[in-house]
Amino acid sequence: MSVDAPARSIVRIILIAVGVAISLYLLWLLREPIGWIVLATFITVALSGPVNFLDRYVPRGLAIAAVYLGLLLLPVALGALVVPPLVNQANELADNLPEYAADAQEFVRDNETLRGLEEDYQIIDKVEEEAGKLPGRVDDAAVVLSDIGFGLVDSLFALVTILILAAFMLGSGRTWVQGGLALQPPDRAARLSRVLDRISAAVANYVAGALLQATIAGVLAYIVLAILGVPFRAPLAVLVGLFSLIPLVGATVAAVVVGVVTLFTDFPTATIVWTVWAIVYQQVENNVIQPQIQRRAVDVQPFVVLVAVLFGATLLGVIGAILAVPAAASIQIVIKEWWHYRLEGQARAAPAVPAAPGGPPGPPAPADAPP
Q1: Does the global pTM surpass 0.90?
Q2: Predicted confidence band of residue 357 (pLDDT cuts 50, 70, 90)
Q3: Rounded to 5, what percent of the chain is helix, strand, coil?
């Protein structure tokens, strides 16, 4: 054995460790564009169904443009439905705010307990004192609004970039995949093609399941709000349905927004009923409706769905929670296909049992059979 062999092994290990560290550092630096590519891939797979359907009748470029137009018009239509009532409600609140303040002061004066608290702690005086400080905080508010504006611009740029990447993938993605599969042996290419088709179907089913879940949440919210007599229940129901697309936290955020509206409708009856309904429905949605819908859509067990959403939300926040279920389904498909491939390889490698004299050949021997 050469004396330099241990030295070469040490040098090789050091170089491998340095290469891994540099690769991880580059991945960390490129984490944002990599995340954009992952989101663009998800959007591409989700939109491939309607694009492929329209591709049968019109050129693919026109099909992509039509799907994108519908995708862009959807938030515009929802905004036209939701924003005007909310603006009107905000204007009405601003007009009636002095009356609300007078009612609050009268309520405090008529209530012995609250009147005692006012005498002891001068709550109204402190509120008026803080209100007097508001003009001096305009600069701070301007800085906060400026930061929010820059954040919105950055988010809009990221969204446009992601949509452009998805458009390129929709236009040329199939060519890239077929070119990559052509470089593989025929049996491996067929297996990889089958895996990609199953993953694509799982993502499309996940999107359909999420839309069904949002529809259920919106319809039930509309029914409850109609029973309570809450105004603007249609846009509020749409808001509930949209926020329910965000796993775990979306229903809570929507419930808080609707709860604030109920304060000005029939307080405290409507607020209490809505709060109880929101708490109960959120638990049912997170633990029953969503896992069952996604189990049927992507063939993943409810326990795995819930764990995947928790892990994804912890690692990547809202985006991770949204991508967790299709990622879990894709991993499950890859593992199952690999296991079948392994079993087929073992069956091919197993020696055949010698045939008896004058009889037909025997079946293959099991892989663990003694020689």
Answers
A1: no
A2: low
A3: 85, 0, 15
